[in-house]
Design brief:
This protein has about 120 residues and is mostly helical. About 85% of the residues lie in helices and about 0% in strands.
């Protein structure tokens, strides 16, 4: 009976997790509406906003590269603090996740570049 009460999935934890998730969804929805309102206020239309993004591609790329470099720096510091996994499946999984993140960032940036080049033509 002692093991059943120590279950990590107690009703309270599930409720807290669900409420936190619901709160995040509501917060992100509010932020999306506010962002859309600000964009419409400053640019007047989505087409003008997209044109501004195309015109400022290189500045925005430099900004994103700075953000990526800060994220990499923090990840390397965090990874140095983590206990070193023994060679095997755990280490391979971590390396795979790192490679997938790098590929995802490259895919996102290449798609933005392709979108910019097609809109500029």
């Amino acid at each position: 009976m002692g093991e059943a009460t120590k279950s990590p999935f107690t009703a309270r934890r599930v409720v807290v997790w669900l409420l936190a998730s619901l709160g995040m969804i509501i917060l992100l929805s509010i932020l999306a509406v506010l962002l859309g309102t600000v964009i419409m206020h400053f640019f007047g239309s989505v087409e003008q906003w997209q044109q501004w993004r195309v015109e400022n591609y290189w500045i925005l790329l430099a900004w994103r590269l700075c953000l990526y470099s800060v994220l990499v720096m923090f990840w390397l510091q965090l990874k140095a603090r983590l206990p070193k996994p023994a060679p095997g499946p755990a280490r391979n999984r971590l390396i795979r996740v790192e490679v997938m993140v790098v590929l995802l960032v490259l895919l996102i940036e290449l798609s933005k570049a392709a979108l910019r080049w097609t809109e500029a033509v």
